[in-house]
Specification:
alpha/beta, Oxidized Rhodanese, domain 1
Length: 119
């Protein structure tokens, strides 16, 4: 098993994969984060209401964001769910308590999320 595969197994044990309805029904302070690369957003857009923080810098950016506390519900997604699982796992390791994997961009759109174009 590769390092990435091992990390994904660990991430899936700790970070629940959830549906878009779970995000919508969460009454806690929450944020949805698209962890894909900028060129992916330019090519396909993103989910309306999400913010973009690439996987490679997410821990740094959230730790320096006073609006997102360790108790905020954080929902991450990427193209198919691998990068978001690993990003979520890393956020959990640095102290964020409520982290969820929305899995893939198209999955979220198929569940009724609105697409937002990037200009």
């Amino acid at each position: 098993m590769t390092y990435t595969e091992e990390l994904l197994v660990k991430a899936d044990e700790v970070i629940p994969r959830v549906a878009f309805d779970d995000f919508n029904n969460d009454s806690n302070a929450k944020v949805m984060i698209d962890v894909r690369q900028h060129d992916e957003l330019m090519a396909s857009g993103t989910v309306e209401g999400s913010i973009h923080i690439p996987k490679g810098v997410i821990e740094f950016r959230l730790n320096n964001n006073d609006e997102i506390s360790f108790d905020t519900s954080i929902y991450v997604f990427c193209a198919v769910g691998v990068r978001s699982a690993i990003a979520g796992y890393n956020l959990k390791k640095v102290g964020y308590k409520k982290v969820f994997n929305l899995v893939g961009f198209q999955d979220i759109l198929d569940q009724g999320a609105e697409k937002q174009s990037i200009i």
